[in-house]
Amino acid sequence: xxxxxxxxSPKKRTLSxxxxxxxxxxxxxxxxxxxxxxxxxxxxxxGTLKRKTDSQTEQDLFMGLPEMLELQASYDEVVQELxxxxxxxxxxxxxxxxxxxxxEGVEELLAEAQREAGQANKELEQEREAKRKLESTVCSxxxxxxxxxxxxQAHVKMSQQKDTRWKIRPRT
Length: 172
Fold this sequence. Notes:
The chain is mainly alpha-helical. Helix content is about 85%, strand content about 5%. A two-stranded antiparallel sheet has the order 1-2.
């Protein structure tokens, strides 16, 4: 199979081995003629369109000038608004940084306060334990004191009874 490309055209023609050289040449000539005709027609159309567009372009420029000025003004407004938004964004990012720094500081203070509260709770528990021990000791001492009072009262009573016995008896 043969593959033929004309004028760099991407069209490929596949020719059968059975076609003679004359037929092959005739088909190549026909294709090149039709390609050149198409090219001439497209050049002619492009020239006509170019002439039309040149005259229309000048007219369109004068007609479209107010629209272009309006578009330019709108564009300038949008650019200004974008600049304003960028400044606002930067301001907000700065405020976020400040708030994050403040939050970190507050978190450090909170952690310190929690450590101090933990230490105070520990001391309070130690004080409560000491108070319980002291109350227990005081209670024991009060019981001992009551017992001693009873013992003393019994001793005093016995002493008084001995004294009265000695006083009542006549001496002989």
